[in-house]
Amino acid sequence: MKNTPELVWKNCLTFIKDNISEQSFKTWFLPIQPVKLKGRTLNIQVPSKFFYEWIEEHYIKLLKTAVGKELGEEAKLVYSIVMENTYGNTNPYTVKIPSNNRPPINNPKVAVPVEVAAAGVKNPFVIPGLKKVNIESQLNPNYSFENFIEGDCNRLARSASYAVGNNPGGTSFNPLLLYGGVGLGKTHLAHAIGIEIKDSYPDKTVLYVSAEKFTQQFIDSIRNNTRNDFVHFYQMIDVLIIDDVQFFAGKEKTQDVFFHIFNHLHQQGKQLILTSDRAPVDLQGMEQRLLSRFKWGLSADLQTPSLQTRITILKKKLYTDGIEMPEDVIEYLAYSITSNIRELEGALISLLAQSSLNKRDINLSLAKEMIDRFVKNTTREVSIDYIQKVICDYFDLSLEVLNSKTRKRRIVQARQLAMFFSKKLTKSSLASIGAQCGGKDHATVLHACKTVNNLVDTDKQFRSYVDDLSKKLELQQL
Ligand code: ADP
Ligand code: MG
Q1: What is the pTM assigned to this prediction?
Q2: 32: domain range?
Q3: Which of 114, 135, 173, 277 maximizes the CB count within 10 A of its CB?
Q4: 51-85: pLDDT as tens digits
């Protein structure tokens, strides 16, 4: 029977569907269209560049396996990207991007669409007979400083990283340990340092490796009796980036070998960059001697981004992809997704996918529908930021005025409403609500809540404000 792209893709989907959640399947795989099949090369069309990157980052292994099952080892996968920019009605255009063939680090302008094996998720760098030149940095060119938005949440981490990037081994930030919760940019920053170093010092050997892969390689080396090669390999690196070192917790042998590699590199003035999902003090199951090494340099944390930073990040991503989106939609996304940047990106991509899949304009109502579904399974509560925005819009005030010290009755009332709704709709404490509503104390918030309750009972006009605002905020409630 002759293979058609549709048939091949249909079989891939059956396989994929069994291996991921239904929601992910709907969001990420249903929008894909098979376009062409030539020999063992399958061409699939995805709705946006974001979409492509998301799939590459999260589902490439699955996709590779699925396509491999259908077309064999030699299978190749080519992406076509449709920028169906419904907003503004620009003509759709198509770009081809090969799987896993993003522009190389030192040559970020190259974008020649070469077909690359879907099976081409590169081999974990085989220890290359100790030939230095052969070491692939394993860096992702998209994770550059240029693409990293600076905000209060990451200022120290970013500037320390930048300093290290420009003078590896030459600052007191050695090791540099970046830590913070998931999706806050640790991996991105770690790559950015590597990219920066590769740019300025092309001869330096830079290596990015996850702690998990490092551990796996170490275990393999023991099994194959090549432990010495393993150690020598790592001792040759000029800039060693190890991601998610919390993975070493409880793994004594791995910590031991890492300790020796660490010491060797550090003594030679080589740069070490580590990331961790928690602060060094909270790294249980990590040997003391290793923890004390971490303290030699600098530990810098990444925190959750502020609203303004979230908006800037979204705008930057859209700009990079050449997608236009109405301002209110961008703000809505930024207001709604507060947990971390990965979620924020996910929401944006879902929105683009939904719009393209259902041929709908990207507007506030689509965004609301999507967020309702997207965020349902994750922690979700309306944010104080958002409450303040709705109230400011309603009373036609600026945020500065709302949170100022002014005692004008109209503004005091708006401020009290912000506190009242924050208490009602979020889990924040009175103290933290006060802090976010113009730096007031908890007693002021308590007073505000009482005042609002009283006024609702006695003042008809005021009551209608509360009703209107409840309706506006309702969309966000669980
Ligand atoms: P972590 O390693 O902390 O879990 P990542 O570095 O993988 O987080 O970041 C998650 C996503 O968010 C990545 O796609 C990354 O590019 C993006 N991201 C994180 N921080 C920023 C930032 N400050 N500016 C732009 N994008 C960011
Ligand atoms: Mg990470």
Answers
A1: 0.64
A2: 5-98
A3: 173
A4: 787 788 788 888 988 999 999 888 888 888 765 44
